[in-house]
Specification:
Blueprint: E1 2-8, H1 15-20, H2 28-36, E2 41-48, E3 53-59, H3 62-76, H4 81-87, E4 89-92, H5 94-104, H6 116-130, H7 136-155, H8 165-177, E5 184-188, H9 192-203, E6 208-213, H10 216-226, E7 229-232, H11 236-240, E8 245-248, H12 259-265, E9 274-278, E10 295-298, H13 300-366, H14 372-399, H15 406-417, H16 424-442
Parallel strand pairs: 5-6, 5-8, 6-7, 8-9, 9-10
Antiparallel strand pairs: 1-3, 1-4, 2-3
Length: about 450
């Protein structure tokens, strides 16, 4: 068996290409099943987000597995296989495990250390489990990856420092006020950056939020989408006297908030401090406006300094996480190697217990007058003999799991004891044939 990860991501394809190869939520279940029915595929999980479409698969052969995965993607999106090959990166074995661990912990994301991908991986895995395209390998590996990512986030600062301008804007408000869940916020503008700022405010517990925009309908649409308030741009002076936080992001060629406007409203202000964050280029807020008492004004250059410093902190945390990945890969490999040993040990025990049971049947026939107590004593001692005899062979079998020639030596082990054990590969293949057979018979 081989683990393979085929990835289309922000490094291998631009957004226009990534849009062409994204599975929507309705299609992901049938896509998993369709891939599972493909030749060479023994287990699979499909991840599809705005920044990546990835196929994780356990395959019987690397080359055929890679080909059939790429062909599956090409057919799913009506593209040529060559087009898919050009935009995919393929990792195999340990590199595939490392890729999964880095993706799950946010080290491979556009925004380093973002935590949303962990939920997306978990969801992709659960969907694959629901449609029964995972098996022994992935049921263990994906749980390991999810646990690893949670631990990485808890034990490092990878996700604690803002590295996007809109997120940094909200974090800057927290630095001034400490707690902002009880504050009133105003967002000027209704574009993508404004929506991201809105989502970050909501995520920080702010509930009293008003959106204003030059086109009122756009402010209304965004406000209704996220269940907040909206108002006209004409209401801006009045709102400045009421709110605590202002985040502005418009495409205006002129200042939206001027010094004169704020001076006029200074006597009307209900709250002590006003934090104004200008993430627009060109700027929406007149420079040096923070000369007004208790007004704190920041622009994109101020935020950039914060973002750069925070990115360095995340990069240090990322290095910590990267250093712990080899141990995870080794643990996974040890577990996989033991998969080949466990059936052998089971087969050996089953053969030994069959011999013990046959021996007890023979004793019952030859000594029919045994009492129940005598029979139990004989059965207990024969089992003890078997366990003592099996102790060293089982120990040797376990040690073979880490041997370079483990497959060859395990085969010799089975020949010596005249046993036959089904390995994980054969088990997966049999289960797959059984499931596909059920699907075909149902159809």
């Amino acid at each position: 068996m081989h683990f393979i990860a085929v990835s289309i991501n922000h490094r291998t394809a631009d957004v226009a290409l990534r849009e062409k190869v994204a599975f929507n939520d309705d299609a992901i279940r049938s896509a998993n099943v369709g891939l599972y029915e493909t030749k060479s595929i023994l287990e699979n999980v499909i991840l599809s987000t705005c920044n990546r479409t990835e196929v994780y698969a356990v395959v019987d052969q690397i080359h055929t597995g890679r080909y059939y995965i790429q062909r599956f993607l090409a057919r799913s999106f009506e593209l040529d296989v060559e087009e898919i090959k050009e935009m995919t990166e393929v990792n195999v074995g340990d590199e595939a495990v490392q890729h999964l661990l880095q993706v799950t912990s946010g080290l491979d994301s556009v925004v380093l250390g973002e935590t949303q991908i962990l939920g997306q991986i978990r969801k992709a895995f659960f969907i694959a489990q629901e449609v029964e395209t995972t098996g022994t390998i992935f049921n263990h590996l994906f749980k390991q990856a999810i646990t690893f990512a949670k631990k990485a986030h808890n034990e490092t600062d990878i996700a604690d420092n803002a590295v996007s301008v809109s997120y940094a804007a909200v974090e800057l408000s927290k630095k001034v006020f400490g707690k902002i869940s009880n504050k009133q916020a105003l967002i000027i503008g209704a574009g993508d950056m404004s929506e991201l700022s809105l989502l970050n405010l909501i995520g920080s517990g702010v509930t009293d939020i008003t959106i204003v925009n030059r086109t009122l309908s756009k402010a209304q649409n965004l406000a209704m989408k996220h269940q907040v308030k909206f108002d006209s741009m004409e209401s801006l002076p009045k709102l400045l006297a009421e709110v605590d936080i202002v985040i502005s992001s418009t495409s205006s060629e002129y200042y939206i908030i001027t010094n004169d406007m704020l001076q006029t409203q200074a006597t009307e202000r209900k709250n002590d401090s006003l934090v104004m964050i200008d993430i627009a280029v060109p700027r929406d807020i007149e420079p040096n406006i923070d000369a007004v008492q208790d007004v704190f004004s920041y622009d994109v250059d101020d935020l950039k300094g914060l973002v750069d410093a925070n990115l360095r902190e995340r990069q240090r945390a990322a290095e910590q996480i990267l250093q712990s990945i080899p141990a995870e890969i080794e643990a996974h490999n040890e577990w996989v190697n033991m998969l080949g040993v466990v059936p052998v040990i089971r087969a050996l025990r089953e053969k030994a217990m069959t011999i013990q049971e046959d021996t007890m049947d023979s004793i019952d026939r030859k000594l029919p007058g045994l009492t129940e107590r005598e029979r139990k004593i004989i059965s207990k001692h024969t089992k003890s003999i078997i366990n003592q005899m099996l102790k060293d062979p089982i120990k040797q079998a376990k040690e073979l799991s880490s041997d370079r020639r483990s497959n060859e030596k395990l085969e010799l082990f089975q020949n010596i004891f005249d046993i036959e054990a089904e390995n994980a590969y054969e088990s997966n293949k049999r289960m797959k044939q059984s499931k596909v057979g059920q699907i075909l018979s149902f159809e």
